[in-house]
Amino acid sequence: MHGFCLSLLPSGLHSFIPPSSSSNNNDNIDTSLQIYNDLVQWTLQNGGHLHPSVQIAKDAQRGVHFQVRKDWTQRVPTDTHIIKTPLATTMSNSSNASSVSFKSHGVHLPHAFMQAVGPKETTTFFLMGQYLRGAEGFWFPYLRTLPRPGTLTTPVYYEGEDLEWLSGTSLVVAREKRVDMLREGFERGMRELRDAGGVEGVDGGEFTWDLYLWASAIITSRAFSAKVLCGVISEEEAKEENVAVLLPLIDMGNHRPLAKVEWRAGDDNVAFVVLEDVAAGEEISNNYGPRNNESLMMNYGFCMPNNPCDHRIVSLRAPPGSPLQVARSHQLQMFPELAGAEKEDHYYVFNVFYPLLAPDSAMEHSVFSPALLDAVSVLGANNRELETLEITSHAIKIPNAYGNSRALLAALSQVTIELITHALKLRSTGSDLQTPKNLKQAHAKVYRDSQILLSETALVIATWTLNRARQHKFTGTWEETKRVLGAHLARIPAGRFPPEIMSRIQMRILERQSLLTHNGELFTLNELPDLLPAAMQQPCKACFQDVLSVSENAIPALAGSEESSPFAFPMFICLVVAVHLSSQSAGVSLPSRLSRWAAFLLENYPPPPTDVAWAVEDEDDEYLLSQFDAAMEDLRTQNKRVFVPLERFTGDWQKDDWWLSPNWLRWAWMVWEQETVGVPEKPLGLLAGGGRGQVQLATETFLYIPQE
Question: What GO annotations for molecular function exist for this entry (predicted)?
Answer without folding.
Answer: protein-lysine N-methyltransferase activity
